[in-house]
Each structure stands twice: as structure tokens, then as C-alpha cells.
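Trying the structure run again after the queue cleared.
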Amino acid sequence: MFQIIIKQGDITTEEADAIVNAANNELLHGGGVAGAILAKGGQVIQEESNKIAPIPLGEAAVTSAGKLKAKYVIHAASMRLGERAEEVNIRASIENSFKRAVEAGLKSIAFPAIGAGIAQFPMRRCAEISLEIAKKYADKLEKIVFVLYNEEAFKIFNDVYKRIIK
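Done. C-alpha cells:
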């Protein structure tokens, strides 16, 4: 039995096999979700990222999670450093994040709003894309969690969830 959960909180504290990082394709973790993951997970995440970067836009790469509760961080490359995210790359990076989780045999994964922070992609469209793809992978994972940092993002994701999933 699978679960798709929408909640407000801090993704860096999530207990899941993997948390997803809204990354740039250079895997430089300076601000936003990436900066928070690095700050709490430790420099080992950046060091491992440096060994595999750059990755193509729309791809996803896996590192350990350092000191985080999660076992892995899946870096979803939805944008180029300093640029805005485009729908095609957001869609591909979310899809590829799910693929990496399934390939690794993970049971749970937690996502932020990929591309809707620093990369300025519209939150509602992000929620629609995220939940459409989550629905496709719901039978391959036991738990999919969307952890939204603020109340506005939580409300938007919850509204879209009710429309797409329920």
C-alpha cells in the first residue's frame, strides 16, 4: 500500500530513504533547498557532488546524505546555475529522481517544490507536474512525501493533490 503525503516543514529533517534536492546541473549547493541540505548534511554532500558534476539538465544524480536522517540525496538538475527553471527540465528531473529511487530499491522519497524557489517556476504548475509524476510511481514506492517550506506552497500542493490524486 502506497502513500502520497503533502506536508509543511523542513525537508532536511525528513525521515525517508532519500530526499530530493532542487539542484542546478553543476551540482553546486549554495542556496535554497540545496544550501539547506548542505548546511545540515555536511560538506561530504558537496564533495560527492563534485565527483559526478556536471550532469545534463533534466537528469538526477545520487549522493549520500551525510548527517541527514535520509540515506541518500537525489539531486534533480532542473536548472542551470543562475538561471530560471523550464518546465521540460523540471518534469525530466522529477521523473529521473523517481527512476533513481526505484533503481536503488528505495521505499520512500521526499521532494521539495522542484524549481519553484530560486528558479522561480510557478508553484501551481510545479505541483501539477510533481503530483502527475508521483501518481505514475506510487505503485513502485511505499511512501512519497512532498515537504513544502511555507504555508502558501503547502496550500497549493494540497489543493492540486485533491484534484489529481483523490
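The longest helix spans residues 87-103. Worth checking whether this holds up in the mutant runs.
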